[in-house]
Amino acid sequence: MQPVILLLTVSLIASTLVACVGINKTSQNIAIYDFGLSVPSESNQTNTLKVLLEEPAAVESLNHNKIRYRLNYQNPSRVFFYTESRWAGLPTELFSSKLSKIVNLTKTPMNCSLKLKIEAFDQVFQTVATSEGIVQLSALVVEKKSKKIISSQLITESVTSPSPNAQGGTAALQQASENALKKVITWGNMIADNSELCR
Q: In this structure, are 97 and 18 located in the same domain?
């Protein structure tokens, strides 16, 4: 009986090792995307924000690191996910990192804060071969003490994907996100400048 038990034990160990190798191989095949490294020229493109900037939030359906896409030509309301690609972090983390690179916070902020919420963050296919990265941000300028909403705005930006896959979609979403954030900063400053409550 002992040789049989030994053989079974060796087989079990071998199977476990094969399974572990398979798991590691699968993990290594997953492509990870972020918003890219900053380059020296970006330091000349920062925008000064005159109000307090709060941490970005996101709708519940975006609280994960999966890369979403939609097939508008087939079923616009259905959300798909790339199985072998992921974001490096949550969308809120990606946006926070991007904001730190493109925004200069004033040392003496006005009496208001800027709240951002990510409403949409999808690659949208209009045809099998053409897609775009679409970002929607809802923005609020709020008086700090009373929490009164002074103004709100929904900002949508889209950028054509260079290729109909995860690589093209993430590149388009990165650029659309930066464009949307810059618009939000400009809008927030304009609202604060024109509001008595922010002074």
A: no
Q: Which range of residues forms the domain containing residue 161?
A: 34-198
> Residue 189 and residue 76: Cα distance in Å, rounded?
35
**Domains identified in the chain, total number:** 2
3 with 100, same domain? Answer: no
Predicted TM-score of the model (pTM): 0.84
Residue 62 neighbours by CB distance under 10 Å: 19
Task: Indicate if 22 and 93 belong to the same structural domain.
Answer: no
CB 104 within 8 A of CB 189: no
| Residue located via tokens 């709020």 | 142
Query: In this predicted model, what pLDDT tens digit does every residue of 123-164 receive, in sequence order?
Result: 999 999 999 999 999 999 999 999 999 999 999 999 999 999
